Amino acid sequence: MKLLVVNGPNLNMLGIREKHIYGDRDYDALCRYIREEAAKLGCEVELFQSNHEGAIVDRIQQAYFDGTEGIVINPAAYTHTSVAILDALKAVQLPAVEVHLSDVNAREEFRRLSYAGMACRAHFIGLGFEGYGRAMAWLVQAKG
Question: Beta strands of 1-144 (E only): which ranges?
Fold first, then answer.
């Protein structure tokens, strides 16, 4: 199964930003974890990170044409603001799963609204790196 993992703004700053929320492991550690978990599941995985909303929309749209079979997305701050990412996910109609490292529901009120999540079939929130592994496993199982 070919999976695309999309990470939004500031996730490239893991290990630096708000360690009390996100921990001290960096983005490279997250990428290694995702690749290891994908290998255990027998999946091909592409990782994509951007701080730019349009680049994320472009990559989601490209997934429709490149054989991607499922999307794991952590839209980060765009979770709460981007109808464009929601519309891209809806347009491609690929199975998508939302992931957040922190428990966004236990944080500021504005973080409880997830536009991208409206197009996702499952959500793994507040599980740290493990959420990505569970999301990929969910997609594999859903494909059956």
Answer: 2-7, 44-49, 70-74, 96-100, 122-125
Identify which of 60, 57, 69 has the alpha carbon closest to the alpha carbon of residue 1.
69
d(CA 74, CA 95): 14
Mean pLDDT for the chain? Answer: 94
Catalytic residues: 22, 100
Please state, in angstroms and rounded to a whole number, the distance separating the CA atoms of residues 9 and 13.
9
Phi first, then psi, for residue 58 (nearest 5°) are -60, -40
pTM for this structure?
0.94
Q: What is the pLDDT of residue 105?
A: 75
Q: Is the pLDDT of residue 112 over 90?
A: no
pLDDT at 106 over 70: no
SS3 42: coil
Burial class (CB in 10 A: 0-12, 13-18, 19+), 73: buried
Domains of the chain, each with CATH number or no CATH? 2-143 (3.40.50.9100)
Phi, psi (deg, nearest 5) at residue 46? -115, 135
